[in-house]
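Sanity check

After download, print the first record. It should look like this:
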Amino acid sequence: VYAASKSFVSSFGVGLWDELKGTGVDVLVSEPGSVRTDFSSGSGTGTDVGPSRGASPIAVAEQTINALGFY
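Expected structure tokens:
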């Protein structure tokens, strides 16, 4: 379900971007990879990003905002 949901959001973003080209509306889908959150500890996958691996949520948010051109 996770992979299918992520794939849908990615495809939807590309379609939305294409539909809105030339309108002045920016579309960005952020797919950051591993992020240090508590999700992995309760996900039941047996994997743990841990505090030393993955990006911090703040860094992901800052990079996403910067990608849109807002500072």
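If your output differs, re-run the checksum step. Summary of this record's structure: Residues 35 and 55 are 5 Å apart (CA to CA).
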